[in-house]
Fold:
Amino acid sequence: MNMHTTPQRTPAETALIDAFGERLSLLPGDGAVMLKRDDAIEAIKSGLPTRRIESWHYTDLRRLLISVPDFDPAAVAKAIAPIVEGSSVLPVLNGVSSMKLPDIEGVAVQRLSEKLTDGSAASGLESYGSDDAIGALNTAFVADGYFVDIADGAQLDKPVELQNLQAGGQSHVRLTVRVGTGAKAVVVERQTGEGAALVSSVSQLVLGEGAEVTWLVVQEQPDTATHLAQFKAHLGKNSKLTLFVMNAGGKLVRQEVVVKTTGEGAEFTLRGINLLAGDTHSDVTMVLDHAVPHTASTEVIRNVVTGRARGVFQGRINVHQYAQKTNAKMACNTLLLSDDGEFSTKPELEIFADDVVCGHGATVTEIDHGHLFYLMARGIDEKTARGLLVKAFVAEVIEELDDEAIVEALEARLDNWFVAHG
Amino acid sequence: MLEIRNLHARIVDDGTEIIRGLNLSVKAGEVAAIMGPNGSGKSTLSYILAGREDYEVTEGDILYNGQSILDMDPAERATAGIFLAFQYPMEIPGVATMEFLKVAMNEQRKARGEEPLKIPEFLKRVKEAAASLNMDMAMLKRPLNVGFSGGEKKRAEILQMKLLEPKLCVLDETDSGLDIDALKIVADGVNTLRSPDRAIVVITHYQRLLQYIVPDTVHVLYRGQVIKSGDKSLALDLEANGYAGVIGQAA
Structure:
């Protein structure tokens, strides 16, 4: 956000700044929260990021964010069933959390609007750097969400599903989860709805010592929506986080993943599938800090690109100077199915320690003709055979999750996408 | 059932001609063995029958039940009843074997205007076929051919053949990579498919497989042509005297 390169405001920038003035009196927050909001809107006033900002090089937000819808107080988002039956559901409907919260053993849930009003959420509103447009947008406008506290030692046998459901207009939501020592949980983050919405959603996760979490982001916005999301996590000693990101919708999507290993023995696994169709622009940008010794991570991203879609994966791994014995491996594989589609991959390893194992690889391929011939030679017509092979390419990543209920649920979402776009 | 007339075919990529005026006729109920030294065009012939796009027919025709198949894609040929048991079956990660079998069987049924199989009926058929080939059902839960040994892949090919019940079976070097026990099981699997309305073309380098799948006719392929045809005694002759004699006579 460089003032000198943005001499004139775009309609979207103007709309955001005007909306802030109009919304201000409605936004919850004590003095500390309101100061954070003021800082955030100042950042937006200095301009949305352009391709000149390195981390936004492939997603020129200033150019791509053409218009910003007004807030729509009349919009009514419909509640939906969770992807795994029996999950505890925490819905946010058009930016507003539920008054009626489910009773989940070992889990304390608070509405974020209350924590903004009393100021206890202020410290969580930090942005992580000068290029944090999503953090700034969210901090300026966030009105609600949830604060979920999973008690030490709690072992949740069913997932907790956080739903951010929109029906047009704007919604700015924050989902904060703290997982206690030795606790174990599956968290599903659903991002969907209908309408030409602008959504910003920031998820914050803190894992205590030895905690184990599988977090699934299932993003299925309509192809009219702009979805700007951030997932930030701190991994304590010997904790394990498996983050699965499925991007299967949206017109303009940026999902940032910001993870820091803060305790020795922490393990981070990122698995992502990007299913890109139509003229979507979808960006997954990860910044991973191995900040202490003896931590490990693997990242595998699989992309399917059809139509005129454009996709981006940026994966940056920083290995700090004292983070010896770091083990990090990153791969990004793309199946490019149309001449007009494109995918940009930018892996970056910045290593300041001298005793580490780090690697990355990227491939772009078409459907394997030998595989296609084999399936067709068994009487499977070309369209069905191609569909099977494309699905197989991404299903491999899902199957790694190794939990039958989750795998089935995600494959159902996958089928849903293929029915609509196959 | 199968009539190949003066077939010429080349590799699309580099134009190399592999099949050079091949004639072959196989009747319903017949088991025909195609033998020949390495590089004679045996595997190419099997791929051309199945419709692989890497090869281009430049002259001649392939008739199946009196109709040319040259304009049919591999799926159309398969649903018409042509089956190729691959020499090197593809490993396809992410495609579960059972799912693949179900889709293949039902796609073929759909093309013939039949209802899809109900799940219990499908499972019953797969279990029976797997048992007859001494295959573990656990293997079929894995992705298609992934991590299968050479012998397991060949059995899986025969399993598919049994389930799809083709009319023209082409077996490309099905004996390669099999130990003697596996060879017997696979040969038994093929023999149970012998029937008056089905033709089987066995492509092999060695006579060994033909001890277990006894052919009605034997054809020697050399430089893209059938240079000699005979009955099963021709295979024994080749085993005893090698290909040199037959090639010498033809030259």
